[in-house]
Every structure is written in structure tokens, then in C-alpha cells.
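Escalation from tier 1.

The customer reports that the assembly of two entities below gives different C-alpha cells on two consecutive runs. Tier 1 could not reproduce it. I'm attaching the input and our single run for tier 2 to review.
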Amino acid sequence: MAIFNKLISVMLVCAMIISLHFDACFRDPRTGLSAGKEKVVFWTPPFVEVQTREWFTKWTDKYNEENDDGIYVELNFIPEDAWAQSINAARADGNAPDLVFANYAAVPLEGNAGYYVDLNEYFSEDEWSDIHGYVENMINVKGTRYIYPAFVEPYSVLYYSKSKFAAVGLDPEKPPKTWDELIDYAERLTNNLSGSDKVYGIQLPPSGQLGWVLWGFQGMAGSELLNENWDTPIYDTAFNRGLFEMFRTIYKNGWSPKTSAYTYNEINQFANGRVAMQPCGSWGIGQIKNGFPGILDDVGIAKFPTPDGDDGVSTAALGGWGMTVSTDSKKPELAVKFMKYLLAGSEEIMVDFFQGLGYSKFSGRKSVDAVLNTGEYAGNDVYSQYMLDEILPLSVPEPCYPWSFSDTFAIKLQEYMLQSGTIDSVMASLGTLMRAYVGSEETAGKNPRKA
Amino acid sequence: MQKTPTAIRFFSARRILKGDLIPSLVLLLPSFALLTVFIAAPLGYSLVMSLFDTPARNELVFVGFNTYGHVLGDPAFWKALLIGGRYALVIVPSQIIIAFLLASLATKLRRRFGAFFKVAVYIPCVLSGVVVGVIFLSVFQEDTGVFNAILSALWKPFALAGAKPFTPIAWLSDPSVDWLACSVAVVWAGLGYTTLIMLGGLYDIPVDYYEAATIDGAGKLAKLFHITLPGLKNVFVYVLVSLIVSSVQVFEIPYIMTGKGQIGTTMGPIGFLFDKFNYDINKTYATVASIVIAIILALLSSIIFRVISSEKSEA
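Tier 1 run:
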């Protein structure tokens, strides 16, 4: 009897193993991918806005239903805090996804290192001529183009509450233009706004994102952290010393919350009324329109203040994302077909994207802009038009040097903010670290954008 | 009569024919295979690859020990190691002392309550580092955290007596205390395991020693210093080495609670490696840094073993 029971148990286990094997082999559990279609794997971060995820899902599903290219696109949202290790692990395995949604800043070095396909093989010059000049500057790496643009988004834009300005005697139509005014406004708002919950004057960017948020200041600074040949760090300047002092003054005096439950990408601290001013990307106004429509009438936007109020100086970096094809892809021509459908095809698809995000991001394509900037869409949107007219034209491309430089600069800024060292000692240690990275990362002569 | 050398005796035909050598080797084979495939082979490959640069995909450039020089000359690398050392300075003595006290208490508890006590102490060990990090992320929140609420309540009598009101401490963002908050979480998470090891060591001390000491008129302190602590020497050696190595390498809990810390004050060596692997295009740097860290920890362990030797190990 005992032997019989053991025999039954063994047979049941074998049956389970066999059925699982067959199930895995012949059925895609998530999507029902049928035999005969070629699978194209597409990875993208999920982004903060749910509307972005909805857009990706909607048009990918539509493509999968309707296309006669014999392609099935498997859309994967990879969380942003797991993005770097996921993509690195996939590349180490030689198994990177066919399509990767990438940030413009990361692409030149990664493309030159052999991770992305040159899209010039798949797009004609006529197709590329639809791209705006300021976007072409970001995606063209000495003639090679690794990325097709989806959108651009300048940062930082200063969001402020008009009613809170009025409550402390500030003119709601006159946002701060200089750093001294920004500090003054932050002090007055923090010390004079009353209520059951404390309200701060401004939300300084949280530490986790400061490394790339500070790129928004490089246009004002007039230089990146490395010279054009990438062999000499540029860090100890009057501009950077002033920047460090401004952050420290605001932080030490308690005019910004010391912690935030939200990232720089999220406008929530401002929208929830915890702060009267918040620098955020252009996408912030879209988050307000979609998530906090009740406060929209109270929201003012402005260029981020400059040291002396100079209007002709850049106040933002031009961020953005696009699509790339991995060199690991066994079927790049199929991957490009979906890329062309989603980003380079019918204007309707991209207009749907920008409309869903409240016109808080901007197209890289002239043909899409021709549709978008009409009265039916963004043409009458005051926030979008302000950013298009005042902020975007002067925005500078994000730098593409190795991350260590940006990260170290941000850490040293925070050291100065949080601790009591002198600016000279902080600059000295910053210089030591940056010169070490020039050596260890062997950056000299490797600037992919150098003429 | 001359004795045959041990190795020859081991591999003698008689021993092989007797049949216990081959089954022993067969039984050990899976472990050796796993160790080879998942530890020895990747380690060997890493050592070889550490001598090359990978400036681009599928491109290998021999650079010798050049990358080792960069790692050893990187102030950020040494800063991360010092932070790991700082974790060890707090976590190791805290865990050893608290675990010893809990284990001593457990030996005195009655059966049912003793069993419940041991389970309760061990439960944090079964939680993943991520879960522990999330728990303590809320415990140490500046405005809404339990810890600040307890401190505020304890300070109330002083505030009522005229002292300044309690200011919530930014445990997770103040670089002078964020690493302490992470250390508390790590101690809590690992306490159960250390306590059980200590408990095993305490049970291993013959009861006769205590009886004899009692007969000789020894008090509690005398028993502690002359019987209990010497009897736990081997356990202390194991706990000390394993705790130092694990404390220096602590990563998940600080990462969940603080990221890298506002100015990198919670980022130990593993966090440093994690960052380098994620963001450097040339992965050799992370490979070399991991080898250097492994060598440093191995040296540290061997020093501890030499300094704290036991009679049993010398026997």
C-alpha cells in the first residue's frame, strides 16, 4: 500500500512537471501571442504619469491587433529604480531588448560603445528632415543617429502659488527673477504663511535626483562640468560658488522642507500646498492638469531665476526621451517598423500623447508640431505656449559625460548645504574627485559631441 | 615499522577497494560542482577580466593592473570602505552584547514561553532586507515616524519644565545620523540569528562547571567571567568574523531607507559597487573594486583569526 501511494505521488509530480513544460512552451501567459508572429521586445520606464503608460499600452495593443508586418510587440515597463541594473544585466547576457526607450543624454556614449544600432540604416534623410534642429543637435553624434526622438521636456520651470504670493504681499504676476529675489521670496513665504500645517517657501530638489537636475543650471553657468576635450574639470567658478551659497542659505534657514516623500519629477509637494514654489520640469503642469485640476487657476509658471535676472540666459536643460534599437536585436528591421509606427508615422499617435499629458512635453517633429500648435490643441494653452516661447528656445542639451561627474558635483553641493565646511574646502575636494575621474574613466578626447 | 604517509594510506588500493572513498567523492561532487560553477569559475574569470578594459562592446584592451591603481587612488572608494567600517563599529558590538543578553535570558525561561521568546527574537531574520528597510523607513520618518514620536513623548516633561520643545530629528536625511538609523535597522534584522548562535554556544557549556563553581562559592560575576565567556570563545570568534564581514557589506537596508544618503554617508562598499556597475560604461572598474574589497575583508578575517585563537583550534 505504501509503495502504491509513493507510485501515485511520483506519477502526479511527473504529470505536473510535464504539463507546466507544455504550458510554458506553447502559450504566452500574458498576451496570447500566437504562433507565426515574430516577437519584438520593448522596454521602457513607466514614468510618473499614468497617462504615459496608458498611451504606450493603447498604441502597442492597437499595433499588435492591426499590423500585417507579422510582428508582436511585447511591452515591458521596467521600474526606474531597477532600470540601470536590468538593462546592464540584459546586455551582459547578450540579451538586451530589441527596443529601448532611452534618454538623450545617455545615448551618445552608449551608442559609441556599441549598444545601439545606427538608425541611419533605416531612416532616409527625408525622414530625418522632419526633426527640429534643436533636437537634431542632441541626437546626431558626428553623423550617426542612435535614437529617434519621442519628445523633449525642459527643466527646471519654477511653479508658484499666486494666492500664497498675494497672502504675504508679493505681486502674483511678478515671480522672482534673480537669486536674491528667490531667497527673499522663500524667506517671506516661509515666515509669513499661516495655517494648521506648516508651509515652506520653496522645495529644493531632493538629493536622489540632484545629479541631473543641476544640468538645468549649466546653461546659466555658461559651461558644463568638463571642457570640450573632456580632460579638464570646470567646477570652481563664481557661478558654482553662488549656486552652493544659494542652496545652503535656503536649506539652513529652514525655507525648504528637509525631506520630501516625493521625487523631483513629482509636483505633489507644490500641488498639496506644502510649498509655495517648486522647481520642476515642464511635465509638472501636465501633472497639475491631470491630478490637481482644482489648483490650476492659482498656478503661475516662470523661468527659473538667474544670478542677476538676465533674460537672455538659458534657464533650463532640454531633457527628453526617444527610442533606440539594441545591437543585440536579432531582428532590428522589425523593431524599426514598430518604431516608425509609434513615433515617426501618423501625427495622430503623437498628438494623442501630448494631449494626454496636458501639452507639458514637446514634440521633436515639425509635422506633429504643425498639428499640435493649433487652436484645437496646444495653440491656446497659455502654459504650453509660454514654455515654447520663453524657456525651450534657450534650453541647452543635457550633458553626456559620465555620471560620476554629475553625481559628485551634486554630493558636494549637498555637503555644503548640510554641513558646516567652507566653500574653499568643498571646492578643493570636488576638484580632487573630478580630476580622479578624468583619469579613471579616461575621458580625455572622448567627447562624442566634440567637433 | 615505518608508517606509510597519510596521503598514500588515503589513496591506497585497499582503501579504494574497500569502497568508502568513491562514494565519499560522489557525495561531495555536487557541492564541489556548485562551488566551482558559481564561485570558483566566476572568481577566476573576474580575476582575468580585471586585467582588461572594456571601452566598447566586444572590445577588450589589456591594461594590466592599471584599473587597480585607479580604484586604490579613488577617494570615493576609500570613503565607502570607511563607511562600511563605521557600520561594523556600531553593528558588531551592539549585536554581540544584545544577542548575548537575549540568549542568557532565553536559557532561563520556561519551556513554552522560552519557545515563544526564541521565535519572536528570530522572526526579523526571515524578513528580507527590503521589507526591513521599508519598515524602518516609516519608523524613522521625521514628521510621522514612531521613533520621533517616542522621543517627543519622553522629552515632554523636560519641555514642560521649561526646556526647548523637541525638534523632530531628520533621521533619514541628516548625514550625521542617517547611518545610525540604518545601523539600528541592521542590528534589529540580524539579532535573531546571532542570538541563536549564542544560545547554542551557551547550551554547549557543561552544566557541571557551573555546579562545581557553585560548590566552590563562586558568585554570578565570577561564573560569567571564568566559565561563560571563556566557554563562548569559539562562538565569539565565529560571530565576530561573520558580523564584521556582513556589516561592512551591508547594502539593502540602507539603500531602501536612504538611497545613498544625502551626501553618500550611508553608502558602504557594496553600494559603491552597485553604483559603479549601474552607471559606468566600462564595467572593469566595478569588477576590480569588488576584488579589492574581497581581499581587504579576507585579510581582516585572517588577522582576527590569528589574534583571537582558541585552544580547540590549536589542539
